[in-house]
Amino acid sequence: QVQLVESGGGLVQSGGSLSLSCGNSGRTFSSAGMGWFRQAPGQDREFVASIRWSGGITYYRDSVKGRYTISGNNAKNTVYLQMDNLKPEDTAVYYCAAAAGFYTSSGAYRHPDVYNYWGQGTQVTVSS
User: Fold this and answer.
1) What is the mean pLDDT of residues 11-22?
2) How far is CA 11 from CA 8, 71, 112, 125, in A?
3) Is the pLDDT of residue 28 over 90?
4) DSSP designation for 96
5) DSSP of 37-57, one letter per residue?
6) Which residues contact 87 (CB under 8 A, 6 or more apart)?
7) I need a labelling partner for 20 at 20 to 30 A (CA). Which of 60, 71, 106, 124 fits?
8) Each residue of 73-115: pLDDT tens digit?
9) How far apart are CA 92 and CA 38, in angstroms?
């Protein structure tokens, strides 16, 4: 089975940076896009960033634009999230996800329902 594994989380001071990675340690599969979501205590899981491999089109939630960068390797089903100028409100468990289906509208990858596989999450804590 597909097993997505995130790494790179941790504790950082406000204004600092972290780099998250996500790879597949299970059976090989082909994804059309990958994304990052996060969930803070007592809150719903929310979209953070996505990339559709075809065209390399990326999306970000407004609050992270200019601070986060998503990238990856389609052939390896690996996705990264570079997070700079972190803020305490970025504190959450970050999850990566992979979507097998191709959507003409690249914005579709902002929605959790299009994803088939999810990682277990990695904790990101930003202190003030």
Assistant:
1) 98
2) 10, 22, 26, 5
3) no
4) E
5) EEE-TTS--EEEEEEETGGGE
6) 14, 126
7) 106
8) 998 889 999 999 999 999 999 999 999 999 999 899 999 999 9
9) 6
